[in-house]
Amino acid sequence: MPATLDRHCADDTATTLLGAELARALRALGLPPLRVALHGELGAGKTTFVRGVLRELGVQGRIKSPSYALVEPYTIPKQGLEFMHSLQIKAYHVDLYRFSTPDEWLDAGLGDVLDGSALCFVEWPERAHGLPPADLDIRFEVRDDARDVAMQAGSPAGAAVIETMARAGSRAG
Length: 173
What we know:
By secondary structure, the chain is α/β, with parallel strands linked by helices. It has 4 helices and 7 strands, in the order βαβαββαβββα.
């Protein structure tokens, strides 16, 4: 079972497609609740990646950066009988960039968002002390106009996502 997966994204389109690839893996696994930590400098492609995930999962309308709102909530529509939990799945995109103290995430009421019951993407997790551990840790490293993306599992659920993506990638290639 691979615990890591590395990909090269030549541009924003490739980053969006990688997000869509993650979404297909999540859907294949029944869309489990998952905490995803996103690391990378400003402009590294974190929001572009999340936008690709959410679009592939059927989110309609504007998908914007949570930089100013702190949290952007989304509803993923149920598609077919593979969902056994509810008619809609909640997803959250959180940005902790503006946090200046380690416990500010708790003061902001994000404990409920990060309780492990939803799909949650967290940008800048290193700015918050004591966050629940991520199921999937994704690092974006900018190289010229491209980016290298490294995914690492932090739980069995994260490992299942990486394994599903790796299998799909080997069938495509």
